[in-house]
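In response to reviewer comment 3 from the previous cycle, which asked for concrete evidence that the modeling workflow produces usable outputs, we include below a single protein chain processed end to end. The sequence was submitted unchanged, and the resulting structure tokens are shown without manual editing.
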Amino acid sequence: MPMEIDYVQQMEQELSRQIGMEIDGWSDIYDNLKVIDVEAKHCLQRAGEAVTHHYFVVSGLVRLFYQTRNGKELNKSFYGENYIAGNLSAVILNEPSRFSVETLEPSKVIELPFNKLLSLYMHSPSWEKVFNHGCQMMLIRNERREAELLTMTAQQRFLQFNRNFSEYLGRIPQYHIASYLGITPEALSKHKKQWLSSTE
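The workflow returned the following structure tokens.
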């Protein structure tokens, strides 16, 4: 992939930085990687379907969301550049994804085939650390998200959102932020200025 090697090197360097060590075995996965450019609102993973890939975000922004039976979408999280988006729990449990992954803006992502990743996780200490790091981060994010929803007011959740996703604030539509917070877009529009002024 001569035209795409810079993007793969970006992923190598960033993942090594995140786990605190060099990752070996990249040559074993190069031929299985695919760099793709997708438009906004492109579905990378659909709820109810098997998880075959995870996605390293080279550029752009994606959201993870659930959908109720009546079609209402509830945002779970957001991932931007240099993060891997996907459903790790579905792979661990060997079940279909419970949520969807969709781009919020035109994005460039690297497709990571999970079957190949699983083989690396099982045979390489550094890739095993990548897997363990992913599991730990999933646990931390889910626990913090649970605490926000159960113990915080809407204002507190909004201010926490601003801290958690500060680099994405101008890139996420307000109705998606409202969905993440568990309030209506109208409520967010009504109270946003007041909530922000309370921190000044």
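Residues 5-134 form a domain with the Jelly Rolls fold (CATH 2.60.120.10). We consider this sufficient to address the reviewer's concern, and the full set will be provided in the supplementary archive.
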